[in-house]
Specification:
The protein is 40% helix and 13% strand. The protein is built from seven helices and five strands, in the order H-H-H-E-H-H-H-E-E-H-E-E. Helix 2 crosses helix 7 and helix 4 runs antiparallel to helix 5. It is globular and about 45 Å long. The chain starts with 8 loop residues before the first helix and ends with a strand. The model has no long low-confidence stretch (mean pLDDT 95).
Length: 173
């Protein structure tokens, strides 16, 4: 099963491009965590961690911020202007960030944040909170300065957060 979860050359190039726009220390922590994940058959059964976002331009951030705050049509227009794919009206009505363009750690170059999901054997991408919790432990073990969006206050608890951004990792301090 592990062999089936190898990236294609195009996927490897995309991952390299995304990581090249992230702070070197954050990219290094991701690399260490990824290596530990790949070395564990049980973890690999959950999928292969991939970076879905590193640097994000302010226009993309504004389009994401509009979700849940503007009409689906307004969200559509902002997404088109930012070069993003269209989303359903239901998804357009869901708040996904509390940061406007220029306020997110994704909006800095190099990016101080990255988002992770898990590539599945069938080629789909999954954002599973349980798998992200496990990956967060490897990220924190790789660099104690990592903050995870499922545990912003870094107390080891996820239930006490006002907002969860499970795929999000950033480097602080």
């Amino acid at each position: 099963m592990i062999a089936q979860l190898q990236l294609t050359s195009a996927q490897r190039a995309t991952q390299a491009a995304r990581l090249a726009q992230v702070q070197p220390e954050l990219a290094a922590a991701y690399g260490v965590a990824l290596g530990r994940w790949i070395g564990d058959r049980k973890l690999m059964a959950l999928g292969l961690p991939i970076v879905t976002q590193g640097y994000r331009p302010a226009a993309e951030q504004d389009a994401l911020y509009a979700q849940g705050r503007r009409t689906p049509w307004q969200v559509h227009l902002l997404r088109v202007a930012a070069g993003l794919a269209d989303i359903s009206a239901v998804e357009a009505g869901r708040i996904v960030t509390y940061k406007r363009g220029g306020e997110s750690n994704h909006n800095k170059l190099p990016s101080e944040a990255l988002d992770v999901a898990h590539l599945q054997v069938d080629g789909s991408v999954k954002w599973d909170n349980g798998a992200l919790l496990l990956f967060s432990r490897l990220m924190r073990a790789a660099d104690k300065r990592i903050t995870w969006g499922g545990d912003w206050d870094r107390d080891g608890q996820t239930a006490d957060e006002y907002f969860h951004d499970w795929p999000h990792f950033e480097l602080v301090g």
